[in-house]
Write a structure and sequence with these properties.
The protein is of the alpha/beta class. About 35% of the residues lie in helices and about 20% in strands. Helix 5 (about 135-150) runs parallel beside helix 6.
Length: about 375
């Protein structure tokens, strides 16, 4: 099957102008289209009243084709969290999550349909990789989040890009590449998406680079490449174990790049960008939550520009893996902190709506077990 249709968000501003010229229209029409999509979050020709009626439909059809079809959407946390399952043009399924907080609105996006990294405790990893998402398919998830916000926003300040923090204005302020897939395994399209998300309107959505987080299980060459991009995004390393013995089983790519190599690349990224590294660590009962592993993790990170984000595991159906006991979690936190390392426990959102990445897609795939 052919790839996703070409979309305005796949192209830089100069490329859009050329595409419009190739369609026989004046180049400034590309800027008008871009302002509608990135500034007003619409791809409907009917909304584009500043374009001549004779050309708006043709331009929208050529450069703003539909990319995502909503299959299912669930809200929880009193409406503050909304998870959506999208079907792509070829039937592939991906998920995104919109999370509203008092001081920000965060969009968690997928970069691949499925994932090829094979981490055994992850629903997406067990599904395998279907394909990479295009740049525009990634960006479209955030645009969809922008569209969903105004109607659900509480009374508050006038609309505008989030700066000082109230989600009531209805704008996405933060984007995290922590949905389905390994972002750095889809490097070119993810970097394209980061640039569309952070370039100012009309080139992009105008979100701050410092408010974008790109996660990885530890693809060392790609981390090194990211450090040379001149971006100031946060790098999140899904470490999950401080020792190679445990990490080889939890994160199979560790058999290629060991803990020391991954952390060395992370410290190089921090040095190149001045950005603190987020160390993601899913606490799994009796697997990686032992006190000695907390001490080892703290000693590895001490003195470095790093923050530990502990994640209480959201078990997938039928999995042998489960979350750590509260006492073990508390001791883990205190032991890491004793090394002078900043550590927090992630807010667990969306558990009642199959919140772990890949759960919703797995339940809605053709091979899913029936009855739920």
């Amino acid at each position: 099957m052919s790839g996703p249709p070409r979309h305005l968000a796949d192209l830089g501003l100069a490329e859009r102008r050329q595409a419009v010229a190739d369609l026989g229209e004046r180049e400034f029409r590309a800027d008008q289209l871009s302002r509608h999509y990135f500034g007003r979050h619409t791809d409907s020709a009917q909304d584009m009243t500043d374009l001549p009626a004779a050309v708006r439909s043709a331009l929208a059809a050529a450069l703003l084709p539909p990319l995502l079809t909503q299959q299912r959407s669930f809200a929880c946390d009193k409406g503050a969290t909304r998870k959506t399952l999208w079907r792509l043009h070829d039937g592939a399924l991906v998920e995104s999550v919109l999370m509203k907080y008092p001081d920000r609105v965060t969009m968690c996006v997928s970069s691949q349909a499925g994932c090829g990294m094979g981490c055994p405790f992850c629903a997406t990893g067990q599904a395998g990789l279907t394909r990479n998402l295009s740049t525009a398919e990634i960006v479209a998830q955030v645009v969809a989040g922008e569209r969903a916000l105004p109607a659900a926003a509480a009374p508050g300040p006038a609309p505008g890009r989030l700066c000082t923090g109230n989600p009531a204005h209805g704008r996405v302020s933060n984007v995290v590449f922590m949905g389905m897939g390994e972002p750095l395994a889809n490097y070119r399209n993810v970097i394209g998406a980061v640039r569309r998300l952070t370039d100012p309107v009309p080139a992009g959505l105008g979100i701050s680079q410092r408010s974008v987080t790109v996660s990885t299980v530890g693809l060392v060459p790609a981390i090194n490449r990211l450090a040379s991009e001149g971006l100031s995004v946060t790098l999140a390393v899904s470490l999950h174990a401080p020792d190679d013995e445990a990490r080889d089983g939890l994160v199979p790519v560790n058999r290629r790049w060991k803990v020391a190599e991954v952390l060395s690349a992370a410290w190089d990224y921090a040095a190149a960008t001045g950005r603190r590294i987020s160390i993601e660590y899913a606490l799994i009962r009796d697997v990686n939550d032992q006190p000695w592993r907390a001490d080892l993790l703290g000693s590895l990170l001490a003195g470095h520009l790093a923050h530990v984000n502990l994640i209480p595991l959201n078990p997938t159906p039928g999995s042998k893996w489960t979350a750590s006991l509260p006492g073990a979690q508390d001791e883990f936190v205190s032991r890491v902190a004793a090394h002078g390392v900043a550590v927090t426990v992630r807010d667990t959102r969306g558990r009642e709506i199959d919140g772990a990445c890949g759960q919703l897609a797995a339940l809605n795939s053709p091979n899913a077990p029936k009855g739920r």
